[in-house]
Specification:
about 170 residues; alpha/beta; Double Stranded RNA Binding Domain; about 40% helix
Length: about 170
């Protein structure tokens, strides 16, 4: 009789656990801040951050210049010269996030793009893209580090494209 009761309890627990994904799947998506989807003019801001000297080719503003060019090529926003003219501030920086890998634990250089409301300076959204996702011997060569740098900038713009592709109805 005890075995039967235990079997019923286990069966009940298993059934309840199978419901958990159904409850999670029904959670409605939270709306995006309206400025992200409706903005026409954007100001690109450089919030700084440095890679190790000589880590990649170019000058210390390479991230800003390259990101600005990629945003301009995308054409989603009209890029303006000051935050006062903007509906959205797109701020790029390099930060160091602690990321665990199989090989080591430590800070990894990461591009961060923060989307800010130019009127309140409130952060509306943040996108992070590690420049290096895992250590490798190929990183000894600067040309390989340059490729990863370029790919991370491209991925940031791609992530922004996906974010802004949300339907405008999601704003309501």
């Amino acid at each position: 009789m005890l075995k039967f009761k235990l079997a019923v309890v286990y069966l009940g627990v298993a059934m309840m656990l199978s419901w958990v994904p159904a409850f999670q799947a029904q959670t409605p998506a939270a709306p995006l801040p309206s400025q992200i989807l409706t903005a026409k003019n954007a100001f690109i801001a450089n919030a700084g951050g440095l890679l190790e000297p000589k880590a990649v080719s170019g000058d210390p503003r390479r991230d800003y210049n390259q990101f600005y060019a990629a945003m301009q090529a995308w054409g989603r926003y009209s890029l303006v010269a000051s935050p006062a003219e903007a509906d959205l501030v797109v701020q790029i920086s390099i930060i160091y996030l602690p990321i665990e890998t199989v090989v080591e634990n430590g800070p990894v250089p990461t591009f961060r793009v923060a989307l800010l409301d130019p009127k309140t300076n409130a952060t509306l959204w943040v996108l992070d893209e590690p420049i290096v996702d895992k250590p490798s011997l190929s990183l000894i060569l600067k040309k390989n580090r340059d490729k990863l740098f370029d790919a991370a900038i491209d991925k940031l713009v791609s992530d922004l494209k996906v974010l802004t592709a949300a339907p405008v109805d999601a704003v309501k």
